Amino acid sequence: MKLRIEPTGGEAFEFECEDTIASAWVSRSILENETYPIMPFVHDVRVVVDVGGNCGAASVHFARHYPDAEIHTVEPGSHQRTFLERNTAAWPQVTIHPIALKDEDGELPLFQGDDDSGMSSLVASEYATTSTETVPVRAAGPWATALGLDRIDVLKLDVEGCEVEVLQSLQPLLPTVRVLYVEYDSRAARRAIDAILADTHELYAGKVFLDQGEVVYLGKADADDPAATEHLLTLFRGDG
User: Fold this and answer.
1) Which of 16, 56, 60, 125 is most buried, judging by how many CB atoms fall within 10 Å of its CB?
2) Which SS3 state, helix, strand or coil, does residue 215 take?
3) Residue 134: what are its φ and ψ, rounded to 5°?
4) How confident is the model at residue 234 (pLDDT cuts 50, 70, 90)?
5) CATH classification for the domain delimited by 38-237, as one of 3.40.50.150, 3.40.50.300, 1.10.3300.10, 1.20.120.1730
6) Domain residue spans in the chain?
7) 77 close to 140: Cβ distance less than 8 angstroms
8) What is the DSSP letter of 12?
């Protein structure tokens, strides 16, 4: 399915996603700066890591807003990568890594999403089918070290149930993360994420429900910037 995206203050462009209502809705929400709102007061973004790249909407979104940054997109699903590769072809700063990240190396089955490939997960769930493909898995921290990353300015995590393990493995780099977008799927995961980030980050904004949420954390220095509060007001008004 081809979507025509007409961003505010930018040129219209086309984006290809899976031919489902869910994929189109998710992709459009990301590319229209709703799901992962850009923080205009966070400058000098040099490294972005997109974990759970799916068809590439977040990576294209970040590439458009951070043209000088290197973007590392992690996507283990072969079906998803066919869209990801086409959508990011025009963005040479995007590097695709055909692996999954967790807290240890190995190989694991990737369960295919039931209604949409974006729901694919290393964790069996009611949202996934019994159809799987075996994918390589890397411990997130050592993987980042092997890439030579000594900072991650913007980190996006949408890994359908493995967020806690990825963050635990990345703990040495977490103090460098200025903006973290993370989706969680249980109240236990929410509490664990809060505990991992307690010393380095503040919860900034998001949609929080009992057993699910999409939230943004800011590094404490950026959270203390008066511009962070000012921008939060624009998000609440819907004009950010």
Assistant:
1) 56
2) strand
3) -85, 130
4) confident
5) 3.40.50.150
6) 38-237
7) no
8) -
| Distance, CA of 114 to CA of 111 (rounded, Å) | 9
Cα–Cα distance for residue pair 31/15, rounded to 1 Å:
9
What does the alpha-carbon distance between residue 156 and residue 181 come to, in Å, rounded to a whole number? 5
Q: How far apart are the first and last CA of the chain?
A: 28
Beta bridge partners of 13: 5
pTM beyond 0.90: yes
Cα–Cα distance for residue pair 138/51, rounded to 1 Å: 12
Q: What is the pLDDT of residues 21-72, one digit of tens each?
A: 989 999 999 999 999 999 999 999 999 999 999 999 999 999 999 999 999 9
For residue 25, give the nearest of 57, 63, 62 by alpha carbon: 57
